[in-house]
Design a protein that fits this description.
With about 280 residues, the protein is α+β, with helices and mostly antiparallel strands. About 25% of the residues lie in helices and about 25% in strands. It is built from 6 helices and 10 strands. Strands 1, 2, 3, 4, 5, 6, 7, 8, 9 and 10 form a 10-stranded mixed beta sheet that branches. A hairpin with an 8-residue loop joins β2 (about 65) and β3 (about 75-85). α2 (about 45-55) packs across α3 (about 90-100) and α4 crosses α5. The chain is globular, with a radius of gyration of 21 Å. Residues about 1-15 have low confidence and may be disordered.
Length: about 280
């Protein structure tokens, strides 16, 4: 028995050396889940993903994501990383794990970006999209996948409000009381507003986002779009640095975490097929 111990120790040492940092791109429909982050009672996207990874690898696996999403929010290219306890080819991690995932969650790609890669800390920015239906009647087929407004929206008024929000600001007025971010200061790089038929698409690009930040921005932009507020009102909202100064938080249904982006040399995919499906 004593002679077996060095061999066992060597095996464990080699196993640690051979472990590979794996990055995955994950898409999910958030309607049935309590957000991304794992909870004691389960029911989150992370819980489902880690259970499937554990079944495929036959060992527990814990993941770190690029950005947490709330209850009902969807993900197009959520990026996670973990240290693999077993060796598998990229296509095996994708197809093998998808076998154990529910139909509304699917791994889209797998990459080996190096041992130092961190899905959250190495992200240079993050993108969200919000889909909004402008219609006199509520959605049916697309329920849970789009937000809804029954009043007509003025696109030019909303676009006139956008410059007031761009740049580096204290976004406390757009921050949930439950937000755990160390600082409310973020750099909002782009907001683009387009319309196709009855569907509006709002795209947001920032260094990072606060809890409920996009949904609170949507509430304010819609207040401007319906004529309840003037575009310059956003100057006052930002300056107040107080959540009470802004509009109510808008519904999560039409919110999509498009995904993070990284330095080009990491060569991580920034698109998934679902991005071509959105209006």
């Amino acid at each position: 028995m004593q002679g077996a111990r060095p061999g066992r120790a060597l095996f464990l040492f080699r196993e640690r050396i051979l472990s590979t940092r794996v990055a995955l791109g994950v898409s999910y429909r958030g309607q049935a889940y309590k957000g991304w982050q794992s909870q004691p009672g389960g029911g989150t996207v992370q819980d489902a993903l880690e259970k499937a990874l554990g079944q495929f690898a036959a060992q527990p696996i814990r993941t770190i994501c690029a950005g947490r999403t709330d209850t009902g929010v969807h993900g197009l290219n959520q990026v996670v990383h973990f240290d693999a306890p077993v060796e598998r080819e990229p296509f095996s991690w994708v197809r093998g794990t998808n076998r154990y995932l529910p139909p509304d969650i699917a791994i889209q790609w797998c990459a080996f970006p190096g041992a130092q890669f961190h899905a959250r800390n190495h992200a240079r920015g993050r993108r969200y999209a919000y889909l909004l239906l402008e219609s006199a009647v509520r959605p049916a087929i697309e329920t849970g996948s789009v937000g809804w407004i029954f009043r007509p929206l003025d696109g030019e008024a909303m676009r006139a409000a956008v410059p007031h929000l761009l740049g580096e600001h204290d976004f406390s007025s757009f921050r949930s009381s439950e937000c755990q971010a160390a600082s409310p200061v973020k750099q909002l790089r782009r907001i683009e507003i387009t319309k196709r038929g009855a569907y509006w698409r709002f795209e947001f690009d920032a260094s990072a986002f606060l809890h409920h930040m996009v949904r609170n921005l949507m509430g304010c932009l819609i207040a401007v779009g319906t004529g309840s507020r003037h575009p310059d009102w956003l100057i006052e909202v930002l300056a107040a640095r107080n959540r009470d100064a802004a509009a109510p938080t808008f519904a999560p249904d039409g919110l999509y975490f498009v995904g993070p982006y990284y330095d080009a040399e990491l060569n991580l995919p920034e698109r998934t097929a679902a991005m071509d499906w959105l209006p």
